[in-house]
Design brief:
Layout: E1 4-10, E2 14-21, E3 26-33, H1 38-52, E4 56-61, E5 64-65, E6 72-74, H2 87-91, E7 96-99, H3 100-111, E8 120-125, E9 129-135, E10 138-139, H4 170-174, H5 179-182, H6 190-198, H7 202-226, E11 230-234, H8 242-255, E12 266-268, H9 275-290
Helix pairs in contact: 3-9, 6-7, 7-8
Amino acid sequence: MINASLGIDIGGTRIKAALVSTTGEVLQRRLEPSADDPQRLVAIVRELATEFAPSVLGVSAPGLAAPDNRTIAWMRGRMEAVEGLDWRHALERDVWVLNDAHAATVSEAWIGAAAGAQHALLLTLGTGVGGGVIVHGQLLQGAIGRAGHLGHITLNESGPADIVGTPGSLEDAIGNHNIHQRTGGRFRSTADLLDAVSRGDEVATAAWRLSIESLAVGLASLLNVFDPELVVIGGGIAECGAALFDPLRAELDRLEWRPTGRATPLVPAALGEFAGAIGAARFAMLKTQQE
């Protein structure tokens, strides 16, 4: 019987832990500094699991989860310490492993902004662009874990290749990682850009308009592919609030195919920085119940 599930979300700078009841109540939370060393990561997770003593344990991290959800099978370029790390063997207990954006999607569909939805998209806008897809109430992981990497769709086939080789990607059109390049060296973050927009800076306004147009084009395509009930938008850029949502909705009024006349709702994510940990805990519950 599952009494409580511990979800641990491993990020580049911090590790988030959440002990969650089967009804979705977050019983305890914890933040710890992260590490890019397998032995240190295992030690931190072991300490948390010992302290919280959960019935089941889930871990989320960047990268592609293996089809059996026992390891992160692929993670290159950052946080390489998680790649191939066999948590079940290291901790000598059952551990279920999930991509971090997939975990956030699971949590938002369980007790967050998409609670109750059978079909939903989560788009995370931050340094890069991640996401996840819920279809018939289930997380779509795909054959090798690539499903839901919504930032790596092509908007411009002639554009430069992104980090995974996709030309002219959505991630490169809206992500924070290359905003300095996209604005001719003038701005280093979306926050800086929007501050200039608020002061009427013409270069900043044009750059932000182009970013919104690109995001709307990508979203319009994703809506046609997945036909969700709603789209949840999270990540640091989503914290811009109306500066993001108002022009994005206006662009989708122009671009979205609406055969029934209904606009797909765009809503901000609800669970914040612990979404991945909560989702990892929920995923572990579901996988344990299926065994």
